[in-house]
């Protein structure tokens, strides 16, 4: 491939570098200084262009362009970050605030509460006067809000505003980081009665219309598909509406590698584009006005669909790419597909540089690059003369190509590999395309009684087939390998291996094969070092699980868990599953905590105290863990145990924890409160094990 055919790819690399520098090195000089720097570099570029530098010195122009784009990426990211805005509401936060904002997103949480993402318009200052401001706030309201509020509604609320906290358990999903890249940094838990609807329909009109259309289409689907699982999958597949999907469905599709079907993506946009183009081609006209109108109709159709389905990164990428294709065809330019991809990424990152950290954005681009490059090569490996077999092999080739390029980053984010992804593709993709077309048809003919009913039942049957096919594949022995944990260095090495192999194929130079083998050797060394560290580890981890006790002891790969009798397995897995995978722990034994007991973990002797019972002799221990709101006092404890370190786990109430903190401070005892400080990880080979 000639680099001259993909100019946007060359521009994208330094631009993305600038964005990543701004994200991972968050030192932001004043905007004025950055603007002056950009002007100087731009002037330098203009001078070099006018001066027509010698061919041998062309690197100077390229270097100037790269520096300019890196600085531009940095500047755009700096300006995009809400906390860098001088009128952000963070400057007015007090103990309790009155806030006025417009709803951008409203969702139901797993606990039944309403979670609102608000664009703040005003907040009270120190004199209790509402001041105009900006920024985004995550507000949690009672469940009644779900039926009363919608996108674009303006609400006023009174609540305490706090920063979104990082996870309290090691390697757990970092919701604060996830929301940071959506430019949301603060949250508020609003008590019932402390909020009210101020005004309806204050959002941007195209989004208001899109929201109303989506709700109308969802009602149509629900009327025709009353069964919960089938309705949930149909609404996700056709409209990108995922709020009704159960954990069972999510798990099944994730374990079979078919999750992408539940997110509106390039397949949907491609179907819209092909369908609209076909319908417009039926109108035969060579007038210039019709050609221009045709372009606008195609662009309007794909962007309207993108807004109706929620505007996720994957669909915005697809809509942007198809927009470039439509415009390119209109001006009779057959652009290089890689250049079109790079141009769409550049355009989207200019609008929102945080897309680069979006998992869907990363996976969608990588999957499409894999399909474009590897699918033809994989497909040519096996010739099947029968049309049905050829079609099925083409689907498998597409799945293999996409999986090959997304594999490293998928393992990094999701820690599992679905072995039968190719089989789920054979089941899901052909039927889902038909479901998609039938869904659009249903929205237009639903008012026709018999015809609408027939199409609705056809969609129900097809989605039922998809679901049962996925459940069947999930039950195949060894369908999914879980617990795979790789670090970011391994991800980079895997991609270096793929790129080196691709370059060796394109250039037919053996040195790139050696480069791939060198990366493979480094990957093997990284694995050996990791395994050595795992076998040498001796750790005790006390997790944060609200109102419960959860402890893991890692002795090499051997894992022993200690929990109370009523700990919910789902809640426990959410707290400790990722960390167990990270530590490569293999479960050996489970102990249930009941009453008071003394346990030895390696060199550490720990007492777990629920109820203090009188004893004739004092037991010497390294630390005491207080659980389950023990009513004992520190004096009572010292009559039984000889220790200097107290640990409070998350099963204690805040009031009880405050009492223990006060008593320990008065007596000079060290205390660690898991509920307030997060989980405690003790390295049992460390002479000072209580340094977290």
What this model shows, in words?
With 692 residues, the chain is α/β, with parallel strands linked by helices. Helices cover 53% and strands 16% of the residues. It has 22 helices and 22 strands. Strands 1, 2, 3, 4, 5, 6, 7 and 8 form an eight-stranded mixed beta sheet that branches. Strands 14-13-12-11-22 form a five-stranded mixed beta sheet, with no helix packed on it. Strands 15-16-18-20-21 form a five-stranded mixed beta sheet. Helix 21 (654-667) links the parallel strand 20 (645-648) and strand 21 (670-673). The protein is globular and about 100 Å long. The two termini are 52 Å apart. The mean pLDDT is 86.
Please name the defining characteristics of this protein.
692 residues; alpha/beta; 8-stranded mixed beta sheet; 5-stranded mixed beta sheet; globular
Give the helix/strand class. Answer: alpha/beta
Question: Between the first and last Cα atoms, what is the distance in angstroms?
Answer: 52 Å
Portion in strands: 15-25%
**Biggest β-sheet, characterized?**
8 strands, mixed
Q: What's the overall geometry?
A: globular
Helical stretch tally: 22
In angstroms, what is the radius of gyration?
29 Å
* Record field, number of beta strands: 22
- Quote the average pLDDT: 86
Detail the poorly predicted runs: none
Q: Helical residue percent?
A: 40-55%
């Amino acid at each position: 491939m000639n680099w001259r055919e993909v100019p946007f790819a060359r521009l994208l690399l330094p631009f993305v570098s600038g964005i990543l520098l701004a994200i991972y090195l968050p030192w932001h000089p004043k905007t004025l200084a950055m603007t002056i720097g950009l002007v100087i570099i731009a002037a330098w570029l203009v001078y070099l262009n006018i001066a027509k530098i010698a061919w041998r010195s062309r690197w100077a122009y390229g270097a100037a362009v790269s520096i300019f784009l890196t600085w531009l990426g940095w500047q755009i990211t700096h300006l995009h970050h809400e906390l860098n805005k001088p009128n952000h509401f963070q400057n007015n936060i007090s103990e309790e605030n009155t806030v006025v904002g417009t709803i951008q997103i409203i969702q139901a949480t797993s606990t039944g509460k309403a979670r609102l993402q608000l664009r703040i318009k005003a907040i009270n200052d120190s004199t209790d006067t509402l001041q105009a401001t900006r920024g985004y706030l995550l507000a949690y309201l009672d469940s009644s809000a779900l039926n009363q509020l919608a996108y674009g509604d303006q609400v006023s609320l009174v609540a305490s505003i706090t920063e979104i906290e990082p996870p309290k358990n090691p390697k757990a999903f970092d919701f604060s980081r996830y929301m940071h890249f959506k430019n949301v940094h603060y949250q508020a838990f609003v008590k019932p009665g402390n909020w009210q609807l101020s005004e309806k329909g204050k959002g941007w009109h195209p989004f208001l219309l899109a929201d109303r259309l989506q709700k109308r289409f969802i009602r149509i689907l629900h009327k025709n598909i009353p069964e919960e699982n089938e309705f949930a999958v149909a609404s996700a597949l056709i409209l990108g509406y995922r709020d009704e999907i159960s954990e069972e469905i999510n798990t099944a599709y994730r374990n079979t590698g078919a999750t992408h079907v539940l997110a509106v993506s390039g397949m949907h946009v491609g179907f819209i584009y092909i369908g609209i183009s076909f319908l417009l081609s039926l109108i035969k006209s060579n007038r210039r006005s019709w050609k221009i109108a045709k372009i606008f109709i195609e662009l309007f159709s794909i962007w309207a669909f993108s807004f109706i389905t929620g505007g996720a990164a994957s669909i915005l990428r697809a809509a942007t790419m198809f927009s470039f294709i439509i415009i390119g065809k209109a001006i009779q330019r057959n652009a290089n597909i890689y250049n079109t991809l790079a141009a769409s990424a550049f355009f989207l990152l200019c609008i929102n540089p945080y897309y680069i950290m979006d998992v869907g954005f990363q996976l969608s681009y990588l999957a499409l690059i894999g399909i474009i490059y590897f699918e033809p090569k994989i497909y040519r490996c096996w010739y099947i003369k029968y049309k049905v077999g050829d079609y099925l092999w083409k689907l498998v080739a597409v799945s293999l190509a996409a999986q090959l390029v997304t594999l490293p980053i998928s393992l990094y984010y999701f820690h599992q590999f679905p072995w039968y992804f190719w089989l789920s593709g054979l089941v899901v993709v052909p039927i889902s395309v038909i479901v998609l077309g039938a869904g659009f048809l249903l929205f237009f003919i639903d008012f026709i009684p018999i015809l609408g009913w027939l199409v609705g039942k056809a969609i129900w049957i097809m989605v039922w087939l998809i679901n049962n096919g996925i459940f069947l594949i999930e039950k195949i022995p060894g369908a999914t390998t879980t617990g795979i944990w790789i670090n970011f260095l391994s991800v980079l090495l895997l991609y270096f291996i793929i790129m080196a192999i691709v370059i060796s194929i394109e250039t037919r130079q053996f040195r790139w094969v050696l480069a791939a083998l060198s990366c493979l050797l480094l990957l093997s060394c990284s694995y050996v070092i990791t395994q050595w560290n795992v076998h040498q580890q001796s750790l005790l981890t006390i997790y944060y699980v609200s109102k419960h006790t959860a402890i893991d002891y890692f002795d090499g790969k051997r894992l022993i868990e200690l929990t109370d009798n009523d700990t919910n397995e789902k809640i426990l897995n959410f707290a400790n599953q990722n960390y167990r995978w990270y530590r490569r722990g293999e479960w050996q034994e489970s102990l249930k905590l009941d009453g008071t007991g003394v346990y030895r973990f390696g060199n550490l002797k720990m007492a777990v105290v629920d109820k203090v019972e009188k004893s004739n002799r004092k037991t010497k221990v390294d630390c005491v863990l207080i659980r389950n709101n023990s009513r004992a006092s520190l004096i009572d404890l010292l009559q039984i145990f000889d220790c200097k370190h107290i640990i409070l786990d998350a099963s204690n109430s805040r009031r009880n924890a405050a009492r223990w903190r006060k008593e320990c401070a008065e007596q000079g005892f060290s205390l660690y409160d898991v509920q307030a400080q997060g989980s405690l990880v003790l390295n049992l080979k460390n002479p000072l094990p209580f340094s977290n």
